[in-house]
Amino acid sequence: MGDEPVNVKEYQILAKQALPKMYYDYFAGGSEDQHTLRENVAAFQRITLRPRILVDVSKIDMSTTILGYKTSAPIMIAPTGMHKLAHPEGEVLTAKAAAACDVIMGLSFMPTCTIEEVASSCNAIRFFQLYVFKRREISALMVKRAEANGFKAILLTVDTPKVGRREADIKNKMIAPQLKNFDMSTEVDDSGGSKLEAFAARSFDPSLSWKDIAWLKSITKLPVLLKGVLTREDAVKAIEVGVEGIIVSNHGARQLDYVPATINALEEVVLAVQGRVPVLFDGGIRRGTDVFKALALGAQAVMVGRPVVFGLTTKGEYGARRVIEMLKDELELTMALSGCPTLSDITRNHVRMQSDNRHCRM
Question: I need a surface site. Which of 78, 181, 226, 271 has the fewest CB within 10 A?
């Protein structure tokens, strides 16, 4: 393989060579048997495309709006933690890559750059991921800081009452760097393995429930999106409590193993929501064809996490930017070859899932 990757998967190969094993395993790994981790990618490969021919595709328009904010493509940078493990300048470079590509960045609740450093680095549209701590005042302060620094939405992560069993981190005795947004210096019992897991167990609030959505909405004017929805029941409940958006996500397969691949859960949630709020997608995107498939199944946009981190690892801001550019280029080509000059032309009829084949036989 040459020095310049030709697809986003090759950045992961280079990142594995460049990162210490502890850090690579942290970024790349999933929980327990890692079944869902493999399925997040493999499930896309079982979805085939149904292209249309003889359509004028001389002009392809991938632009869209997400929560009213214009973006060059339905591709966002997912919130992922601790980018300084990948590159010394961390999330600041990730934000600059987002700005250069004119896409929206999700900033992790646990970055290695401060909210203020990221906000002042460039003019990217940014959303802020939120975990709720047992000490609610910490989470409330983070929301206020994000709002004061121009972040446009809160992505409330709702699938982490406890941290999933990430066995690579346990074996490696994963040590997190100082998280500059809040104090992580208090000693925790990490004799069983991952210090990061011990910190989460001490800090995250496992009592978080539906009633707390009202609390969050009461302390911010920003729209609140729920990140971690996988079922129609929770999608309906989310609508009932008044959230402004839903992110179909299994946390990059880092939480409960043997949940569905996110792409297999997407349509169930979309059908339950019935267009009342935007549905975003997170998990397993590695190709422009994957983006196309998620859009065809009803997602308004997709989030990309690990590939951006691996691009950042190997080539800094340029690498993170190239990952997004590659996906945009591949999506544009897929749209052209499928007969879809605009995003609105992409429909459910452009994809076939294995379940569709079963229904046809019946």
Answer: 271
